[in-house]
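Go through this:
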Amino acid sequence: MAKPRLKYFRFREVSNAIELVCLFNELNESIENEASSVFAMLYYQTRNHIKIDLFPLKYLSLSFTTRLLNLARDLKDKNRALILAGLNPSLLHFIKRFKFTDTIFLIEEADKDRKRRSKTSSPPSMEEIQALFPSLPTTKVNEAQ
């Protein structure tokens, strides 16, 4: 897959997933528009799981959260998974409270781990995620459509 020019996201392909890292601290309309495009592109052009690292964000708008939940539901319908890492405590509580853990795999971090990661800023690898979530469905990267 050719890598498009993205202003607010960075992504890379790993064994059976796409890791998407946010390069912004606050949401605005242009970021949400790019996010919609990126989510659609990854959904339609790959057959991989999608891991999104939301570490730099302290706040997520309801519209962005809804887009994440819709993406998770669509991926689950295709036997793929959305993995969220670096969530702020309020969104983590929201996802658990309303039982969205059926559709979204979460990588929880203690507050001190979040602060430590701000210095190193390296997201966990897919191998580490698969070790944490043995129930994560496995897909082949180059399956025929």
Q: What stands out?
A: The beta strands are 9-14, 17-22, 49-53, 82-85, 104-107. The mean pLDDT is 81. The first helix runs from residue 29 to 45.
